[in-house]
Amino acid sequence: MESADIGLKVDTSDTTVFTNSWHTLISGLAGGQLSLVGYYDPTVTTGPASVLNTQIALNQGGTVTAVIFYPAGNNAGQGTSHTFNCLITDYVESSNVNDRVNITATLVLTGADTIAQL
Predict the structure, then answer these.
(1) At 57, which helix (H) or strand (E)?
(2) E strands along 1-118, which residues?
(3) Could you give the CA distance from residue 74 to residue 60 in angstroms, rounded to a whole number?
(4) What is the mean pLDDT of each run of 10 residues along the chain (118 residues)?
(5) CATH number at residue 77
(6) Helix H or strand E segment including 56
(7) How far is 72 from 87, CA to CA, in rounded Å?
(8) What is the DSSP letter of 108?
(9) Structural domain tally of the chain?
(10) CA pair distance 85, 32, nearest whole angstrom
């Protein structure tokens, strides 16, 4: 992978009344997604198309994909890990003239993201 970005977001509901001059909000449900960008690998059994399409088929059958994401690597003392279940909602292969073939994928969290210190 060339890059991986995790984003967490919390929904809010507006509770502002007519006499307020500033918005007031309450916190709602949390969610997130992991966006992946990388290079295409045509290997039939281990390339991203094979791995991600297999997981998409499992997602369609009702099975979530378990993920452990290490933003700074998985060595002790190098940050955190994110452990969550997800559904793969997007997989794209992009071909350009005079450039490599890129892939992107979007993994949407289903349930909580457990963050741990390494």
Answers:
(1) helix 48-60
(2) 3-14, 25-39, 65-69, 80-94, 102-109, 114-117
(3) 30
(4) 95 96 97 96 89 96 97 88 97 91 96 95
(5) 2.40.30
(6) helix 48-60
(7) 23
(8) E
(9) 1
(10) 11
